[in-house]
C-alpha cells in the first residue's frame, strides 16, 4: 500500500506539537508501519560524534486489555534467540523506531534488541533498544581507490590467489567484483578544510559502494548533504585507509570541532541542503563549530 507522505508528515508534526514528541515504527526501508503505543519512558542521550543509543519503554495494553500490534512486529518468532528474557534480532527484517520532537528533524534508531514483560499472550510493557544513524558509517570503508571499484561481477569457484593445481574449490561459487587497495600514502589522502575533506571522503566512499552494489545514487539510503554553517573550518589531511569510515573521520572531526549529524529525511519534509530526494534516506550533515584558532 502506497504511503501518503504528505498526510504522514502533517500527522507527525501535529502529534509532536500536541504531545511534545511523535514516535513511530518503520520497516527496513524506513517506510512507516504504525504509530507507537504510549511511551512510559524514553532515553536517547546524544554525545557529539558518538553513536547514540535509544532505550524506550512502551505500554502495550489499552484500558480494555487489547495488546498493541507493535509487539508482533518486534517480538516475533523469528526475531532472535531468547537469552535471559532478551530477544535479539537475527534474520528478521530490520525495524526502526522513529522519533520526532516539535520543530525538529526525525531521528531514526535501528532496533538492536527488545524485551517484552508480562504474560506471554498478553505482555504489558515492551522495552526497545536501538542505535542512531551514525552507526551506519561503521559499515562502510574509507576507500583508498574509490574509482577502481568495478560494478561488473565474475563468478569464482576457487581462490584465485591459490595454486592452480590444487583442487580445492569454494563450497559455494562466489560472485566477485574487482577493486584496488593502495599500500602507500601517496595519492590516497584527502586535503582541504576539515569540512570539505570529510565530506569528500564520505561522498566518494559511498559513491563507490553504491556503484558496485548497483544502487542508484538518486535513491541511495545514505547521503551527505551540502549543509554548511559557513564558519571557519581548520585545514585537514585525511589518509584513506580502507578501514571503517567512521573511525577514519572521527579524529579529524574531533580536532577540528566538526560535528557529524545523521538524521532521517522522509518525503513530505523539507529537502536537505543541496539535495533532491524522493525516497526515505539517512542524511549526513557536517556542522562546523567555533574553534579557538578560528582567526588563524
Structure notes:
The chain starts with a helix and ends in an 8-residue tail after the last strand. Mean pLDDT is 88; it is low at 78-82. The chain has helices at 5-19, 70-74, 194-213, 245-256; strands at 21-26, 32-35, 39-43, 53-59, 82-83, 86-87, 96-101, 106-117, 125-132, 153-156, 174-177, 189-193, 222-224, 235-239, 258-265, 281-288. Strand 5 and strand 6 form a beta hairpin. It has four helices and 16 strands. The strands form five sheets. It has a seven-stranded antiparallel sheet. A three-stranded mixed sheet has the order 13-16-15. By secondary structure, it is of the alpha+beta class. The chain has two domains: 5-138, Thrombin, subunit H (Beta Barrel), CATH 2.40.10; 184-288, no CATH class.
**Main beta sheet:** 7 strands, antiparallel
Number of strands: 16
Q: In which order are the strands of the major sheet placed? A: 2-1-7-8-9-4-3
| Percent strand | 25-35%
Sequence of secondary-structure elements: HEEEEHEEEEEEEEHEEHEE
Q: Distance between the terminal alpha carbons, to the nearest Å?
A: 56 Å
**What average pLDDT do the residues reach?**
88
Question: What's this, in brief?
Answer:
The protein is of the alpha+beta class and 296 residues long. The chain has helices at 5-19, 70-74, 194-213, 245-256; strands spanning 21-26, 32-35, 39-43, 53-59, 82-83, 86-87, 96-101, 106-117, 125-132, 153-156, 174-177, 189-193, 222-224, 235-239, 258-265, 281-288. The chain is built from four helices and 16 strands.
Amino acid at each position: 500500500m502506497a504511503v501518503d507522505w504528505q498526510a504522514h508528515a502533517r500527522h507527525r508534526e501535529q502529534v509532536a506539537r500536541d504531545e511534545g514528541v511523535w514516535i513511530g515504527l518503520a520497516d527496513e526501508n524506513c517506510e512507516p508501519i504504525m504509530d507507537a503505543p504510549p511511551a512510559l519512558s524514553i532515553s536517547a542521550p546524544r554525545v557529539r560524534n558518538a553513536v547514540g543509543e535509544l532505550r524506550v519503554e512502551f505500554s502495550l495494553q489499552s484500558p480494555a486489555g487489547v495488546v498493541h500490534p507493535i509487539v508482533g512486529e518486534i517480538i516475533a518468532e523469528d526475531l532472535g534467540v531468547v537469552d535471559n528474557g532478551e530477544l535479539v534480532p537475527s534474520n528478521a527484517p530490520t525495524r526502526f523506531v522513529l522519533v520526532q520532537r516539535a520543530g525538529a528533524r526525525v531521528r531514526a534508531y535501528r532496533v538492536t534488541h527488545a524485551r517484552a514483560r508480562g504474560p506471554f499472550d498478553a505482555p504489558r510493557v515492551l522495552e526497545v533498544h536501538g542505535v542512531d544513524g551514525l552507526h551506519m558509517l561503521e559499515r562502510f570503508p574509507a576507500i583508498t581507490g574509490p574509482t577502481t571499484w568495478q560494478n561488473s561481477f565474475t563468478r569464482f569457484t576457487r581462490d584465485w590467489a591459490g595454486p592452480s593445481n590444487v583442487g580445492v574449490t569454494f563450497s559455494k561459487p562466489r560472485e566477485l567484483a574487482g577493486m584496488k587497495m593502495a599500500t602507500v600514502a601517496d595519492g590516497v589522502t584527502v586535503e582541504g578544510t576539515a569540512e570539505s575533506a570529510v565530506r569528500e571522503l564520505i561522498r566518494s566512499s559511498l559513491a563507490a559502494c553504491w556503484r558496485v552494489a548497483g544502487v542508484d545514487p538518486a535513491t541511495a539510503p545514505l547521503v551527505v548533504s551540502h549543509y554548511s554553517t559557513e564558519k571557519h573550518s581548520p585545514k585537514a589531511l585525511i589518509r584513506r585507509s580502507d578501514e571503517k569510515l567512521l573511525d577514519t573521520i572521527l579524529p579529524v572531526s574531533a580536532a577540528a570541532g566538526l560535528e557529524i549529524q545523521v538524521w532521517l529525511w522522509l518525503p513530505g519534509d523539507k529537502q536537505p541542503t543541496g539535495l533532491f530526494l524522493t525516497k526515505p534516506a539517512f542524511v549526513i550533515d557536517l556542522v562546523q563549530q567555533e574553534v579557538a584558532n578560528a582567526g588563524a
